[in-house]
C-alpha cells in the first residue's frame, strides 16, 4: 500500500512538473509521504 502511494505521488509530481499544475501541493504531499515512509521503516524494524 505504501509503495503504491509513493509511486502515485512520484507520477503526479512528474506530471505536475511537465504541465505545471499544482506543483506546490504535490511537493508537500511528497514530503509527507517521505516522512511516513521513514517513520514506517523505523517503527517496523524496531518491532521485530
Structure description:
The protein is mostly helical. Helices cover 90% and strands 0% of the residues. The chain has 2 helices and no strands. The longest helix is centred in the last third of the chain and has 25 residues, at 23-47. This is Lmo0937 family membrane protein. The chain crosses the membrane at residues 6-39.
Summarize the structure.
By secondary structure, the protein is mostly helical. The protein is built from two helices and no strands. The longest helix is centred in the C-terminal third of the chain and has 25 residues, at 23-47.
Q: What are the SSEs and their pairings?
A:
Layout: H1 2-19, H2 23-47
Amino acid at each position: 500500500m505504501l509503495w503504491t502511494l509513493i509511486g502515485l505521488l512520484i507520477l503526479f509530481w512528474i506530471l505536475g512538473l511537465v504541465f505545471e499544475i499544482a506543483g506546490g501541493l504535490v511537493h508537500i504531499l511528497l514530503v509527507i509521504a517521505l516522512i511516513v515512509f521513514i517513520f514506517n521503516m523505523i517503527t517496523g524494524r524496531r518491532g521485530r
